[in-house]
Each structure stands twice: as C-alpha cells, then as structure tokens.
Amino acid sequence: MRKFVDPHLRPSIANSNQVEKMINKSSELGYRLIGIPIQPNLMRDTIHELQRICSDAKIDIVTRLDLAPNTPHELLLDLRRFRRRFEIVSVTCNSKSVARQAAKDRRVDLLSFSATHLRKRFFDYAEAELASKALSSLEINMTPLLSLKGFSRIRLLSRLRKEIAIAKKFGVPVILSSGAKDPNLMRSPHDYASLAALFDMPQESALCALSENPLAIIERNREKLNSDYIAPGIRIIRSPRRETVVSTHEKTLSPSDDCERTTSQRKRRDTRHLERHP
Q1: In this structure, are residues 207 and 173 in contact, taking their beta carbons and an 8 Å threshold?
Q2: pLDDT at residue 269 in the model
C-alpha cells in the first residue's frame, strides 16, 4: 500500500485554526506525511505545536525550508547556514544563474519555478542534466492548475508537458505537491494523479511522484541528519562500552563469529605444519 506525501502544504503558521484544519484534512484525504515550510527563526514552541497537531491527526510532518535567493552567492550562504536544520530544502529559481547553481548543488532537494511567469521557468536540457547528476528533483505545485483560468492555464500546461518530457529524458525525479494555502484547494492523491494527465504524465508515474519519489528524498535526508551518519554507507554503531564505525555494505561480525573464525584459522595453520613435518 502506497504512503502518500504532500511535501508542500502552506497554511499560515500564525493561524492555528487554519493549520489544524489543513493538517486534519490532509489526513482525511489519505496523506500520511506532509511538509510545511518553516522559517529559520520560528520559535521552537511553535514547531512542537505543529508536531503535536500532526501526531493527533496520525500524520507525519517534515520540516521544509523554501529559499528564493536573488543570486547564486546568496543561495550558497543560505545553504551553508540552514541545510543541516531542515529535512527538505526547496529553491524557487527566479533567475537562470540561481537555477543552474541550485541544480548542481547536492544540498538542494527540490527545484521550483513560477507558475505565472513562464519566462522564469528555466527547466531546460542544461538544467535537467545538472539536476540528474546532483540528485535534485523537479517540483510541480498543483494548486495553480485549479486556480488559474483561460489562457494562463493553457500556457502553463503546455510548459509542463515540455518539462515532464525533459525530466523523463534525463531521469530527473518529479515531485507533485499541492502548494495549497487554503483547505478548499486541497485534493486527494488520486485527484492530483488524474489532473497530471493534462500535462501528459502517466497515472503510475504521477502516483510515484506523490509517494515513492518524495519519500526517497525524506528518508535520505533523515539518515544524513542522524547523529550516527558519517557518509553514504557508513555509520556509527553505539554500544554501552564502545562506539564502532562500520560500513553498512559489509557484514558486522559478532564476538562469537570472530572467535570461530580465529579457531578455524588456527586449525588450518596446524594442519599445514603437520603436512610439512610428519
């Protein structure tokens, strides 16, 4: 059974009633994990209150940071300051230089672009090639498809068709998020998957973009933020008496295994000695 994720729910944090209403509705719609953008200076008590509301609704929450830097240098400074404090980092790319820097930086999880200013959507072949090497994903907010009307929505759909084709060609994962600020604009995962057909995204791919794709990012980042994490495949195993650095790609021997291996080696050495000196 799929675990559906909405990595971009945007309630007004100051409005506790709206926050609780949108979290509860996410749970009712079938989501089991949501991401809410949090400002770096937000009080810890407010974060704990968000976690409490999500716990009562039986839904997991991911801390998310939305960056909208004006220059690549500003982006690098923000990543250096805040990357280790959030489980998801998204960058809204309002210029080509920022888009290129974000696409090639492994600290960036999601690449986001304007839904109304299509000239600021810089997801082209060069962007996709950089993103594929840095494990970045293309995020598509679905709310604009519900709120825009007429020619604006037609132009956006046309642009999304091109971006989906480019992402598929270069193997860039796509993430479908609601981006909803209002409970009335929230939809179920299957509704969004059906809506994605308007920009030529197959239903199975759309369901993956609502579940497996965002989950892979979250699980990877939660592992990195763990205090026992050292590098990919390497972590610290803690015991009451000692700490041991092991590779997760290798088998860890217990004391009994180590003793048996030593005894076996000693027997082989004695056998070779007898063969040489009968």
Answers
A1: no
A2: 55
